[in-house]
Each structure stands twice: as C-alpha cells, then as structure tokens.
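dude i think i finally got it to work??
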Amino acid sequence: MKKALLLSLALALPWCFFAQKAEYEVAAIGFYNLENLFDTLPSPNTNDRDFLPDGRLAWNSEKYWSKQANMAKVISLLATEVTPDGVALLGVAEVENRVVLEDLVAQPALKNRNYQIVHHESPDERGIDVALIYQPKYFRVLGSRPLPVELKDPKTGERDLTRDVLLVTGIFQGDTLHVMVCHWPSRRGGETGSMWMRAAAAQVCRNAADSLLARNEMAKIIVMGDLNDDPTNPSLTKVLRAAKSTDTMKPGDLYNPMYALYQEGNGTLAYRDAWNLFDQIIVSKGLVWKQLGGWQLMRAVVFREPWMFQTEGAFRGYPLRTFVGDMFLNGYSDHLPVYILIVRKK
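look at this
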C-alpha cells in the first residue's frame, strides 16, 4: 500500500503542477502481455495442445476463468491514479483468438468501460496474436490491418512463422492516431542468434512509420508491444530509430520514453535474476512537439504492485505468473504492464 501511495503521489505531482498553470485533460494508453491467454477448446492450425483439459497443463474452465479475472483485475487498475477511466487504449499480446478477448472485456472489473476489440488472426506457430482494446468514448477506429513479419532463416531458407504487427488508425478525441501493436520474435536460440528476426520486425514498424510520416511529418504514431529487446538494443536504436531523448531526435526519429526507465533499473520481466524492459511504448515527434498542440506525451510508467510478485521460493521477486513449469500458481503474467500518460489543454 505504501508503494502504491508513493507511486500515486509521484504521478500526481506533475499533474498538480500543470493544473496550476492551465486546465489539462489526461488519458492513458497501455500495453500488457497477457501470457498465454488460451481458451479450453481445441482449435485447428493452433498449437494449443497444452491448453486443453486433457493437456499437459490440465487447462480447464476453472483455471481459464480465474486467469481472465486476474487479467481484468490488473487492467482495471492501470492509470487509475490519475484518471478514473483507466487506460483508454490497451495493446495486448499472447491471446489465442477473439473469443478470449470478448470474455476478457466482459469481466466484471472491465465491463462498465465498454472496451471494444480490434483483432486479426496471425500465422504465429504458437497460435498467439496481438490485439487492441479501446474505450469508444476516447477512440473511434477508422481502419486496421495486419502487417506481416516475413522471416526466412538465412542459413536454411525456411520460413519462421511469427506474429503480425497490428496497425490501427483512428481518431483519439480529435487527434488522428496510428497505433502499432507488436510482439516481436523471442530470443529462443540465444539473443545474438535471433537478433536478425527482431531486426526484421523492427523494420516492418519502421517502414510503416516512414509511410505515415511521408504523408504527414507530424503524424501521431505509437509503437507498443513486447519487443523481446531492451531500449538499448540495435533493433530499437538503429532499425526502429527510437531515440533515448527528445534532444537527440533527428528528422524521422521516434522517441522511446522507456529508455530512461531502463537506465534507472526498471524492468517488465525477470530472467536469470536480471530484469529486462521488453515491454515498451514508443512515440513519434507529433506526440512530443508541444507547439503542435493536441494530445502530448507526459510520462511513461511500469505498473507494479506487491501482489503481482512471487513472495517465496526460487523465483521470489519475479512476476507471479499463471504457471511455473506444470505448477499452477493462479497468478497474472510473467510480464508487467506499461502505460503512458498523455495530456492536452482543455
């Protein structure tokens, strides 16, 4: 509770400062890797064998609905320190299909927010997709499409199936906003050996950003997701061109507000007793150039509460996940959610 109070104060202080000078509105946009949100039914062309009642994890209705309630609990609390509406937009990863999303937004903790869904099936070999949920009081969708990430092993020539990037364009209370929801390829096989795959995914996002910026150099773009790389890795700094500060941005660069958080020791998942900050939200110049007006970035946040962590055993201090191996922990996710606060003058 004390940590939560300190976080609330840390978030509220800048808001109070702004409010003394002018009246502002605040909104939140987030991302959360839900870690294997599968239903309990067999699906064709989906590697969901473990997530069936007779599968390795004995994934039954009781576990499924508990997982849904746990996910909804976390989502319902995001950014409520500064806005009672919570996150207006939320990108999610590791969802099996639209059905699990419909069940998620219908949970009691979220139902009153009337979240709507943007989802496209992807060719990922694990059967997991990305999606965007949004509150229609904030956001009106104009269009969406998947951007394929085509991976071909440079040694064997074989295609590696992975998640598409989801591109959604809409009107966010008067501002045109372009959102890319990502789940870049993992580090399976080692960070160095798999680097080319994340570079390929980053290039898809970079190409889409270039296309949008060519039409409007002040386009408001958000790239969010589980990128399986830290803010300092080449896929972010060199391929996506996500600058560490607004002062170092060159024409066409994006800005990564998570960079400073990472340098301060923050992370969103733990591996071998070290923290990585794979879950990131990156923005274009249009969201940091104050002279442009409209919605502008205020700050980025990694959401963490004491009950989201394991308190004992070998993984003490790690995010409390649904399973460790075959053991059901009835937790949340192996990732922590992130969000940004954006503000505009009333």
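Residues 1-13, 17-21 have pLDDT under 50 and may be disordered.
im so relieved honestly
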